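Q: A small favour: would you put together sequence and structure tokens for a protein?
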Amino acid sequence: MSATPPSIAIVALVLGGPERVRFVLAAAAAAEGGDTRTTAQAVEMQGLDDPFAQFAFQAPAAKRYRTINATGAQSSASLPPLPPPLPPPRPSTLERTRTKSERLIEYALIKAFRSSKHASVDDFHAFLISLGSGGDGSRGERDGRFWALIACLLSVQCRDSVALDVTRSLMTKCAGGSVPAAARVAALPLDEIESAVQRCNFYKTKAKNVLSAARHALARGGRPPSTYDELLALEGVGPKIAHLLRSVAYGHEDAGIVVDTHVFRVAQRLRWVDAATAAAGAEAVRAALERWVPTEERVAFSLALVGFGQHTRSGEGWGTIFVDEVQRSVAACEESFDGDAEGTQVSMNNRGGGGGGGGSGGSGAAGVARASNVMPPFLSGVAASMVERMDAKPS
């Protein structure tokens, strides 16, 4: 009994080496498909002088190929079909850009975490709201908008706590009188403003921006501008400050997401935006985020992510705290699930309608029970993945 004939790919490997396998298989496939080219033409087209290539193209009319078995006798065997092409390599778990549903789940975990974890941005946010700059047209609203602008100018590349202290100190220095706050600041010499804000980074530049903003507001009756384009025209105001003022201080619902260094870093590390978007800068990241964050959620989204970013920069151990907090939240949800399951079971069993109603109730309770069993490990796994991505060094 003769041995099984070797496959054409193995023959190609033995006679021609690895570099011949791809061409020989392609040549054999062409012959299998009824290619009428001659062997000489095929070899000339490939620029090869390969005897095995000639063998591959010498297909009989019956589309069968000669091979040599172990005893030396000739036999015929059909060429096995070519394997399908390999799919493109998938990105690693860390590098893969997250889907919309994944982003929403991860944002929900961040928001839940932040609901019990204070950050310095919360104080700054509360200060802007406390200024009463929402648009009632009063003198307090006018001055509130001005001081909100000054606080934001001083907060650029500066700790929130320092910017708040300096702003409050400047407000005390310029307190009193019935004239607009902008007029009182505009009356100060530049060196005096520099002395008042010197605790801030880049205080000389910021002092000039404060004086310029005061003079600009004074020309408008003490009220700073409120539109996005007008705010961008002020010295020291970029997109981040403009969106922050319009959303938090001025209460404009159409204001954009505030993308500071923390929001940018979180969105990039968690792969909420792809590499090309991150490379294009903060405004590209903002536009990408606004495509899936609901408009009414933008203020809360910015606040949650800034505070989350501050926590991730707090040092080693933040990830353990985050995962533990998620697990505690899930445990609280489990208790709610258990109550829902019992309530569903009792409610459905007490409904008239016999066994059908009871069966439906059992199914509903089982569904809640299944959810309570599946969600804890799932959400804990999501949280752990988020920690891994946040701590990974950017590629």
The CA atoms of residues 257 and 286 lie 6 Å apart. The first strand starts at residue 65 and ends at 68. The chain has a mean pLDDT of 77. DSSP finds 19 helices and two strands in the chain.
